[in-house]
Design goal:
alpha/beta, 7-stranded parallel beta sheet, two-stranded parallel ribbon, globular, disordered C terminus
Length: 257
């Protein structure tokens, strides 16, 4: 069996990846901050699908948490074949309304952790000549809207660049850019969702199915829904100044995890 490591595995897109990969008979390394939820998730997936589910409690906003996951990804006696960098969060408020400490924590999780974990995973994968990384970004990456969108734009650019550099190594990298997904994301951030039209909401399990299909096709960026593909096509044609106003009216951010 191959092994997949998923950060932010206990809810939302991360939990959907865990369910799908377990059903496909991948062993799992489940990473999140809540040990109790991790153990419950591991037990459920083991009992339902007969796979091994390892629990790794780690807070990726801390040095200790990132380092713990780096060590697991670098363990060549128990290699990880697929890394899903899913952990992330949103801050409620506009620029200068959010405390600087919270902004820096976001950059730690969305950028530093993604860089370090991707590097640890792909170094080991390259030596074996196979492996894959999915970095969960957002369609917010394509809209000029605050630190969240900026951090996800970095994820997309980094992933595409790393994919090019590792093109002949047998290691695949893909940035996953979902839109609004029905998860705990907004509730945790204290964000309202009443102004978001029903058609913009996506199902996490369907999203993951499409994302894994895009990964198998060798795509480096996945926008896994026809509605958002069309919307992002319009975004490319819209002046940047106008985009900022539209994103303000639509909601604090696009593409929760």
């Amino acid at each position: 069996m191959t092994t997949a490591l998923i950060t932010g595995s206990t809810a939302g897109i991360g939990a959907a990846f865990a369910r799908r990969l377990a059903a496909q008979k991948h062993n799992l390394v489940l990473v999140a901050r809540d040990t109790k939820r991790l153990r419950e998730q591991a037990t459920e997936l083991h009992d339902r699908h007969g796979i091994e589910a390892e629990v790794l409690t780690a807070d990726l906003s801390t040095e200790e948490g990132i380092a713990a996951v780096e060590r697991r990804l670098s363990d060549r006696t128990h290699p990880v074949d697929l890394l899903v960098n899913n952990a992330g969060f949103g801050n409620k408020g506009r620029y200068l309304e959010v405390p600087m400490a919270d902004e820096l924590t976001m950059l730690k999780v969305h950028i530093e952790a993604v860089l370090r974990l991707t590097s640890a995973a792909t170094e080991s994968m390259r030596s074996r000549g196979r492996g894959a990384v999915v970095n969960v970004a957002s369609v917010a990456a394509f809209v000029p809207r605050g630190t969240y969108g900026a951090s996800k734009a970095w994820v997309v650019q980094f992933t595409q660049g790393a994919a090019r550099d590792l093109a002949d190594s047998g290691v695949r990298l893909m940035a996953l850019c979902p839109g609004f997904v029905r998860t705990e994301f907004h509730q945790r951030a204290g964000m309202g969702t009443d102004n978001i039209p029903n058609w913009m909401w996506l199902d996490a399990d369907k999203l993951v199915t499409e994302a894994l299909a895009d990964l198998a096709r060798g795509r480096t960026v996945s926008i896994p829904d026809p509605r958002y593909k069309a919307l992002m096509g319009l975004v490319k044609l819209t002046p940047r100044g106008l985009l900022g106003g539209v994103s303000s009216r639509t909601g604090r951010k696009y593409g929760p995890q």
